[in-house]
Write a structure and sequence with these properties.
single chain; 437 residues; Methylamine Dehydrogenase, Chain H; 4-stranded antiparallel sheet; PQQ_rpt_dom; Quinoprotein_ADH-like_sf
Length: 437
């Protein structure tokens, strides 16, 4: 077991090595963690921040001086790098920064990495439909984007978008997975009536895994692995549990695929064709003081024979409100290629999404809404092999993180607990070094 601040319960104090820049204003989150409202990305010598008002800013990773600013049509909630794209629109190859949106149009757009000039735009509302209600939960939402080489060596962008609607007791999802060439040309679409939550491209570029966390209609598989060249399904998998909850996250490690299961609250490693290599209990139903408690495994990151799972908030089977805590809530658990434990540690708060690169795992932590302890507001990072790492405390909540080439970047958002009048923290981007911290 890794020894860290998070297990001792000490406050995550600032260590002085992180620098920060204000991102302006945003409505404070409340006691419960809120939806994804920001994005951060590290690529080359740039740190990019996407804001709820649609502003995308590229900062120099060393000086934090602004390189360029662009206006995205929607809330900017996801960022990726598309390498060697047609970055200038004049035939000269250059990297592009691709931004995923949540809003009226559910826009995916590519911007020149050097200048911020928009290169192409695609509105996913053309696939998933327009919102039927003026509510954030009804807006078209590009939940995931990922760039990588195909097995033929071409650079391609993959994206998953969804839209929700409700008519009385009838709930529906409309979703599509898309593949784009570097110039924005759509190569294929894969459409379902389920809710995608995560995608991951295999290292050899020939398969794309799509995790679905809600299956309410005809589509009844929590996981679909697509041919990355054509979009045709290669195989499917499902935890086989009752209800519409299925998969929380997916992550390839070579020809193996790790899956965080919302259905039975376990972690799985699948081989080719979906053969189950092993499974581990993460936050399965547990009896405490006469209540049946559980927590969802929300994230997974697999690499080099190590699989990291992260669990979320406690819920009770009979009621979503409980004063008790599941013993494995808000925890990172790492196992080896055989499914045997390597290390585990507490993250103490709700993790919006994992970032990982070069053997480092970064977890941005919001408050634990049942305890409302500001000491949980932090980013925490771990060495994938040993569990050692560090922590940087925020006054507000950490809601997004990125890591690349030894640089860690994170977004802080202000929070106001529902039973207090104090606003903690600010809207800011923080940048530090894995080694320097």
């Amino acid at each position: 077991m890794a020894s860290s601040e998070s297990d001792t319960g000490a406050r995550a104090d600032r260590n002085g090595e992180f620098r920060q820049l204000s991102l302006g204003e945003i409505e404070a989150a409340r006691s419960r963690h809120t939806w994804t409202r920001s994005a951060v990305h590290v690529t080359g010598d740039l740190v990019l921040a996407g804001r709820w008002d649609g502003t995308v800013t590229a900062f120099d990773a060393d000086s934090l001086e602004t390189r360029w600013t662009a206006s995205h049509p929607d809330h900017a909630v996801g960022i990726a790098t598309l390498e060697d794209g047609t970055g200038t629109g004049s035939g000269t190859d250059a990297d592009a920064i691709v931004v995923a949106g949540r809003g009226e149009t559910g826009t995916i757009a590519a911007y020149n990495a050097e200048t911020g000039a928009k290169q192409w735009r695609y509105d996913t509302a053309a696939d998933v439909g327009d919102p039927v209600r003026d509510s954030v939960f009804y807006l078209p939402y590009v939940v995931a984007i990922e760039a990588g080489d195909t097995d033929a060596g071409d650079e391609r962008l993959y994206a998953a978008a969804r839209r929700y609607e409700r008519d009385g007791d009838v709930r529906r999802w409309y979703s599509t997975v898309l593949a784009f060439d570097a110039d924005g040309t759509v190569r294929w679409r894969y459409e379902t009536d389920a809710s995608p939550i995560a995608i991951d491209l295999a290292p050899d570029g020939d398969r794309l895994a799509v995790g679905y966390n809600r299956c309410l209609g005809d589509h009844d598989h929590g996981l679909v692995v697509l041919d990355a060249a054509t979009g045709d399904p290669k195989w499917t998998w499902d935890p086989g549990t009752p209800g519409d909850r299925r998969v929380g996250d997916v992550s390839f490690d070579g020809d193996r695929l790790a899956v965080a299961s919302h259905g039975d609250k376990r972690g799985y490693l699948l081989g080719p064709g979906g053969a189950e290599r092993w499974w581990v209990d993460l936050a399965v139903e547990t009896e405490i003081d006469g209540e049946t408690l559980y927590a969802y495994p929300n994230h997974v990151s697999a690499s080099d024979g190590r699989v990291a799972f992260v669990t979320g908030n406690t819920y009770a089977e009979e009621s979503r409100e409980t004063e008790n805590r599941h013993p494995n809530e808000h925890r990172v658990t790492v196992v080896d290629a055989a499914g045997d434990p390597v290390w585990d540690d507490a993250v103490r708060g709700f993790v919006h999404g994992l970032a990982a690169a070069d053997g480092t795992i970064v977890a941005p932590c919001a408050q634990n809404f049942r305890v409302r302890d500001p000491g949980t507001h932090a980013i925490r990072w771990f060495d994938r092999e040993t569990g050692t790492g560090g922590v940087e405390g925020f006054d507000g909540i950490a809601t997004a993180a990125a890591v690349a080439d030894g640089t860690i970047a994170a977004i802080e958002e202000p929070v106001e607990y529902h039973d207090e009048s104090e606003t903690r923290g600010e809207y800011a981007v923080h940048v530090g070094s894995v080694d320097g911290c």
